[in-house]
Amino acid sequence: MIRLDNKQKLSVPFGFKEGFIWFRWTLVSCFALILYMPVLVMCSLPKVLRYNHMFVVFWFCLGLDWYLKRYFSILLSSGNSIEVIPGLFSLTLVFNKGAAFGLLKGWGWLFVGLAMFTCVFILVYLALYREKDRLVCWALVFILSGAIGNMIDRIQFEHVIDYLFFYYGNWHFPVFNFADVVINIGVGLICLDVVRDMFRKRDELKAVED
What's the pTM? Predict the structure, then answer.
């Protein structure tokens, strides 16, 4: 039996051949996951749709986002901007080819792929844990509706319709839409759940120490 000294290093050869094998199996794994996604969605949907409150909120947010985008596209089609609160808030039509708030322009189809993957993950999570983590599940419902709303725009128009514009003096916030608002509500609920969980664990630890 060969014994290695602690100071010896075991070198494992990793050249072009090994790298190609690793890359090939990574592609195979990704392709298998993509093929399995429809199965995950179809298995998850019946369980998700049983919970009517989440189902209604999802469709309400998605439908309202779709309506507002089409409405403001017609209302602001001439390129004019409507001042709602002078010096603070206006309705301004912008076609965003990037991510949320105008970031990473020109990567539209990458965002479509990420949105699809996110939607599948959320549906599976809702199917498995909707009765355990209610606050997180509500957060994911908001994120799901916003992600699908923007994804529909990217597939149909290759850009997202934004129209909400906040500014003050020389400062201005990137133009966004209702779907972005809904997504951020979901993110906020997740952050709230994390903070709540931290306080709960702290209280449990104090109870054990006492």
Answer: 0.70
